[in-house]
Amino acid sequence: MSFAMPLDPHSLLPIALRAASQVVRNPVLAEEASERAIYQLTVALLDGSPPDCPEAWLRTVARRAACAILRSEWARTKTADLDGVASAPRTSGKRSEVQSEWIRDNLAAALTPRQREALQAAITCNTTRAAARTCGMEPRDFRRSLRSISQRARQLLDHHPLLGDPQLPGAEQGRAV
Questions:
Q1: pTM for the predicted model, two decimal places
Q2: DSSP secondary structure letters along the chain
Q3: What is the dihedral of CA 162, 166, 167, 169, to 10 degrees?
Q4: How many whole angstroms separate alpha carbon 118 and alpha carbon 107?
Q5: Could you tell me the CA-to-CA distances from 59 to 44, 55, 64, 145 in Å, in that order?
Q6: Are 121 and 135 contacting, i.e. CB atoms less than 8 angstroms apart?
Q7: String of b and e for 129-141 (b: at least 16 CB within 10 Å)?
Q8: Could you tell me which of 177, 174, 175, 153 has the C-alpha nearest to residue 99?
Q9: Contacts (Cβ under 8 Å, ≥6 apart) of 68
Q10: What are phi and psi of 5, to 5 degrees?
Q11: Which residue from 24, 52, 114, 148 has the least number of CB within 10 angstroms?
């Protein structure tokens, strides 16, 4: 029993969306998974190897794409509440410009070669996974390395007599700035 493949794979999008929605409860993620499944169907059609039963094939691919999205970092990002960000004070936990410059200049000397490589990858790459690949690490190990680099930077700032105080340079106690 042969099924005539529709010319437009996007006509099967509702089937893929239903299958992805069974795995992912978030409508945005379900839509992403269904679009990935439609893309794979389009590639299969262009390769000249259409599936025998496209609806069943699409359901399976959509479910697998939804599972892959759940496992990925893309699904773990949380939306920020921008109302709270605008009203929050900007000085809490913020380092002064002098402290930031000093850390940039002196941190590399306090790190191991592997940590310097991880720091450079973190600065140049746009995702954790890409930075970890650049260093030849697993993402979990890369995040641990970044955590130890951050701890080392905090230790350097805490033990530096002139930079440990977050006060602006030139400002003394009791004087207006």
A1: 0.42
A2: ---PPPS-GGGGHHHHHHHHHHH---HHHHHHHHHHHHHHHHHHHHHT---SSHHHHHHHHHHHHHHHHHHSGGGG-----HHHHHHS-S-TTPPPHHHHHHHHHHHHHHS-HHHHHHHHHHHH-SSHHHHHHHHT--HHHHHHHHHHHHHHHHHHHHH-TTTSS-SPTT--TT---
A3: 50
A4: 13
A5: 15, 6, 9, 40
A6: yes
A7: eebbebbebeeee
A8: 153
A9: 33
A10: -75, 130
A11: 52
Per-residue tokens: 120: 């450079």
What's the token pair of residue 72? 């990925």
Tokens of 55: 């609806």
Residues 6+ apart with CB under 8 A from 51: 41, 44, 57, 58
Q: What are the pLDDT tens digits along the chain (177 aa)?
A: 445 544 578 889 999 999 999 999 888 899 999 999 999 998 888 888 888 888 999 999 999 999 998 888 665 665 555 555 455 454 445 566 777 777 777 788 888 888 888 888 888 887 888 888 888 988 888 888 888 888 888 888 777 655 544 444 454 455 444
